[in-house]
């Protein structure tokens, strides 16, 4: 499959033959479409799914101006195409009684998007790039691709937060000690605004398996403080044999933990030592 077909598969011969020149547009998707109409010809025309449509157009443009697209760029195209396809599928379900052409246009765009996605998945199915391996693992539960990602983590080659979090989740089932190290690493090194509160629940699960009820309580409590999740106070107290004095202590530590995480100070905090 040639590069043009990687960008947009199968909507016109013109797109397949269009070269890599004459491109001076920026981030605006409307400007991109005006100067590169082949990047947008298969998409729907009305105002539905504007965010997903714009993201897909910009991703296509980056592929077009890159002579040898990286695995990360192809991964981004897969994700953006999936997002667009899912959105336009819902939009296609909205039936216009008067302007029936709008419904037909969305249905056409959805059909083409699913075909494009399938062809891009086929095009990248044997690519060993870590991003594409990660995609196949999480999308299709492909074991050889999973092993590529796991091997990269063990070699210290993974840097993407979402990949490390996925590997940590996998390790909960296969290597609890390594899962704990990864989650603590994420809490220590990921920007506070990008911290996933579910990591605290994952650590709570690990300590439950280790029968460390105090850490399980503390981390579960911290999760409720940093997210919209709720937990039964009765069940939390039951974890620590209804010891109300201990509950007061652990509640205070949970607040301290959340404060350190929000301030980006977990790595140097005293409470971190509790989990090591």
Short structural description:
This protein is mainly α. Helix content is 66%, strand content 0%. The protein is built from 14 helices and no strands.
Q: Helices, strands, pairings?
A:
Blueprint: H1 3-7, H2 13-17, H3 29-35, H4 50-64, H5 71-92, H6 100-123, H7 130-140, H8 143-154, H9 161-174, H10 176-189, H11 198-209, H12 213-226, H13 233-239, H14 244-262
Helix pairs in contact: 3-4, 4-5, 5-6, 5-7, 7-8, 9-10, 10-11, 11-12, 12-14
Top keywords for this entry?
276 residues; mainly alpha; 2 domains; 0% strand; elongated
Provide mean pLDDT, rounded: 90
How many beta-strand elements?
0
Radius of gyration, rounded? 24 Å
What percent strand?
under 5%
Describe this structure in words.
The protein has 276 residues and is mainly alpha-helical. It folds into 2 domains: 3-124, no CATH class; 182-275, no CATH class. Helices cover 66% and strands 0% of the residues. It is built from 14 helices and no strands. Helix 5 (71-92) packs antiparallel against helix 6. The longest helix has 24 residues, at 100-123. The chain is elongated. The model is unreliable at 9-26 (pLDDT under 50).
């Amino acid at each position: 499959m040639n590069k043009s077909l990687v960008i947009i598969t199968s909507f016109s011969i013109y797109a397949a033959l269009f070269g890599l020149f004459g491109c001076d547009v920026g981030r605006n998707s409307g400007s991109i479409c005006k100067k590169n109409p082949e990047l947008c010809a298969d998409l729907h025309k009305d105002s539905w799914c504007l965010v997903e449509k714009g993201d897909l157009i910009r991703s296509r443009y980056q592929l077009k101006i890159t002579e040898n697209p990286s695995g990360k760029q192809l991964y981004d195209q897969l994700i953006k195409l999936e997002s667009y396809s899912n959105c336009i599928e819902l939009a296609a379900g909205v039936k216009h009684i008067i302007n029936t052409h709008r419904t037909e246009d969305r249905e056409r765009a959805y059909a083409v998007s699913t075909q494009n996605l399938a062809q891009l998945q086929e095009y990248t199915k044997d690519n060993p790039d870590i991003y594409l391996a990660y995609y196949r693992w999480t999308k299709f539960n492909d074991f050889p691709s999973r092993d590529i990602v796991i091997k990269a983590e063990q070699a210290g080659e993974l840097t993407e937060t979402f990949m490390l979090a996925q590997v940590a989740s996998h390790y909960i089932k296969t290597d609890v000690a390594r899962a704990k190290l990864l989650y603590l690493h994420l809490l220590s090194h990921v920007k506070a605004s990008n911290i996933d509160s579910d990591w605290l629940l994952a650590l709570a699960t690990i300590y439950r398996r280790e029968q460390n009820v105090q850490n399980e309580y503390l981390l579960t409590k911290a999760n409720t403080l940093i997210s919209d999740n709720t937990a039964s106070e009765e069940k939390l107290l039951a974890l620590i044999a209804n010891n109300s004095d201990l509950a007061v202590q652990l509640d205070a530590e949970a607040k301290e933990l959340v404060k350190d995480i929000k301030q980006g100070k977990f790595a140097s905090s005293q409470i971190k030592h509790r989990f090591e």
